[in-house]
Design a protein that fits this description.
eight-stranded mixed sheet, glycoprotein, Glyco_trans_43, Galactosylgalactosylxylosylprotein 3-beta-glucuronosyltransferase, disulfide bond, Spore Coat Polysaccharide Biosynthesis Protein SpsA, Chain A, 10 helices, alpha/beta, signal-anchor, binds 2-acetamido-2-deoxy-beta-D-glucopyranose
């Protein structure tokens, strides 16, 4: 454009000079000079016009960059979160729901481990502004963690995650929010996001276009800075983990997502509550994918976008003391 404009100015200049010279030459000559002068003036006028057109073109802002796709065109991310009542439950769910609010085209499947929907969770979902489905299933007594047992003895959230899979496959049973499962042919991806982890909003865009099963590293897990797939030439060739590396899929629950059509095509794929310790993820994934076909995300699994954070259990010594004196914190205040 710059070069062209220069040429136009040059042409303008030359034509002006030519016109001037011609006028000078014609000066004092016997006069049939009017028509040529008129022609030169007309030519100049045309050039002027062209120049102002080009200047207007230059002032016009450059065309807007390609718009990101409309939200309707994006595959939906179904985020499955098991949750159970405890002191920090609301804090965890507020934090997670506000992270999820940053993600377009997301549907939260919140599954309570309870006999029925609790006011705390129902209220939180209603206030969240998210598209959600509220589900409830109580973990059978035999599977429940006993008092004092360390958390890793029994896998937690198994019934709840399976309940969400049931809803995705056939619907029914929702106690709040969207009741109908995704219509056939819905493009989407399913991610199992516990309520205590920390998620970067970038993670969700990494998983959105999953074709089968996508994977990425998880920070602060397995006694390591991070655990995750090892990738060579864009393919998963192994796993960086310190613990039982021979598990079929040594990945954390937060380290993979599954395409919805794949989950629907494999109705037997679910979590096995009787799976040995650390094999829960494998119990689902072995129905779905060959380890070599895992799709590495997060820059070939070199970026950590989710962290296995643990919230400390709050100490309630003073609360208990005050309660004994009948002066405990007002139970009507939801915490
Ligand atoms: C992942 O690795 C493959 C093969 O080396 C390469 O072509 C691709 O660009 C890499 N992707 C990213 C996001 O770094």
């Amino acid at each position: 454009m710059k070069l062209k404009l220069k040429n136009v100015f040059l042409a303008y200049f030359l034509v002006s000079i030519a016109g001037l010279l011609y006028a000078l030459v014609q000066l004092g000559q016997p006069c049939d000079c009017l028509p040529p002068l008129r022609a030169a003036a007309e030519q100049l006028r045309q050039k002027d016009l062209r120049i102002s057109q080009l200047q207007a073109d230059l002032r016009r802002p450059p065309p807007a960059p390609a718009q990101p796709p409309e939200p309707e065109a994006l595959p939906t991310i179904y985020v499955v979160t098991p949750t159970y009542a405890r002191l920090v439950q609301k804090a965890e769910l507020v934090r997670l729901s506000q992270t999820l609010s940053l993600v377009p085209r997301l549907h939260w499947l919140l599954v309570e481990d309870a006999e029925g929907p609790t006011p705390l969770v129902s209220g939180l979902l209603a206030a969240s502004g998210l598209l959600f489905t509220h589900l409830v299933v109580l973990t059978p007594k035999a599977q429940r963690l006993r008092e004092g047992e360390p958390g890793w003895v029994r896998p937690r959230g198994v019934e709840q995650r399976n309940r969400a899979l049931d809803w995705l496959r056939s619907g029914g049973g929702a106690v709040g929010g969207e009741k109908d499962p995704p219509p056939p042919g819905t493009r989407g991806v399913v991610y199992f996001a516990d309520d205590d982890n920390t998620y970067s909003r970038e993670l969700f865009e990494e998983m959105r276009w999953t074709r089968g099963v996508s994977v990425w590293p998880v920070g602060l897990v397995g006694g390591l800075r991070f655990e995750g797939p090892r990738v060579q030439d864009g393919r998963v060739v192994g796993f960086h983990t310190a613990w039982e590396p021979n598990r079929p899929f040594p990945v954390d629950m937060a380290g993979f997502a599954v395409a919805l059509p794949l989950l629907l095509a494999k109705p037997n794929a679910r979590f096995d509550a009787t799976a040995p310790r650390g094999h829960l993820e494998s119990s689902l994934l072995s129905h779905l994918v060959d380890p070599k076909d895992l799709e590495p995300r997060a820059a070939n699994c070199t970026r950590v976008l989710v962290w296995h954070t643990r919230t400390e259990k709050p100490k309630m010594k003073q609360e208990e003391q005050l309660q004994r004196q009948g002066r405990g914190s007002d139970p009507a205040v939801e915490v």
